[in-house]
Amino acid sequence: MLALFKASLAAGLLIQSAQAVIRFGCSQLVTERFDPLVTPGQVAPHVHQIIGGNAFNLTMNPSDDYSELATCTTCRFKEDKSNYWTAVLYFKHDNGTYIRVRQKPNHLVGDPEGGFTVYYIAGYPPFQPVTAFPKGFRMITGNPMIRTKSERDLDSVESYAITFRCWDEDQLASPWVGSNQHAPGVGKYDSVGLPDRFCPGGIRSSIFFPSCWDGKNLDVPDHHSHMAWPLGRVDERLGIIFHEGTCPESHPVHVPTILYEIAWDTGFLKDVWPKDGRQPLVMSMGDPTGFGQHGDYVFGWEGDSLQRAMDNCKDAFGAPETCQDVLTVLTDEEMNSCRKATEIDEKVEGEYISALPGCNPIQNGPEPATMVPNCDAVSTTIAKAAPTQIPV
């Protein structure tokens, strides 16, 4: 299995001989309208899918140590109680109802239920040292309100940060054919917005975070200006993983590059996909373009475990098995058994629903999306939390 993993990752991500990387799958913790970074203490405007430690909550105080508060994690390494979350993808039926598009396991990450894949990448040039995030660190990448490609600086590293790849059927079965031989965020295989056609093998969304920290602020009001993208341009043949730049003077501390990969299982929509060519997918914030895709991160690794992993896990392919002398590798069963009950009394997945949860009418742009005033959606939590439902 390890040999197969290495062969596929060498072909699919072009990481061989480039840098140390930790790559691991995480199952779903909970799916609900919580966002403790943007709307702490309040029900969030749109639905997120959350993975990681079960200490995730409506309010997450930066002074708390979530590696100690969490009793389990949905991620592959026991020491990682961090939380990672993104928007949810929905399909709009011709009759006007919506259903959440389920996630499937990414290539060669085991059998997590839902969730997505996380990478910690040391960076380029090969195996350069990086500084692990400190306790209390958090950040956001992307902007849920944008609806047009022109909002991005196409000459910057950031322009490659959030992309989508349409998988054909053969790529569903084989991780080293077709577009999987190319790194994320480059060339003809990736788009900044949602694909404009049916993808029988699924859609992979890649979300990169900036890797240059100011070395001072664990967080800032906008949750991103304490971070910066590396200088220099990206080789469009190789992608953001191989960025040629260094950190700017304003943000001199090189931290690991975090990457999320979400594999959406769109194959089950074949029989209900619109015959007129209309693009029926929409993200949970009412975004049919995909330009507003975003990711949130709250650090929660135990002690110095992340620094030890980045210093010692030198396998360029990121297989968890090669890091088991440094970190504790959990089984699929252990990951999948970690769950957090939802605390909002509303249906968000598992069946067709009449509207996107929250007040999220579809806003096509090109102007930025706006919040709906006087929203009458559920805005309180319930006294008795309900079990999390895995989408069907």
UniProtKB/TrEMBL annotation:
Coiled-coil intervals, chain numbering: none
DUF1996 domain residues: 35-301
Protein origin, superkingdom:
Eukaryota
Pfam families recorded: DUF1996
Q: Which residues form the signal peptide?
A: 1-20
Keyword field: Signal
Q: Return the PANTHER family for the record.
A: DOMAIN PROTEIN, PUTATIVE (AFU_ORTHOLOGUE AFUA_6G11970)-RELATED (PTHR43662:SF3), PTHR43662
Q: What is this protein called?
A: DUF1996 domain-containing protein
Q: Which organism is it from?
A: Ephemerocybe angulata
| Taxonomic lineage of the native organism | Eukaryota, Fungi, Dikarya, Basidiomycota, Agaricomycotina
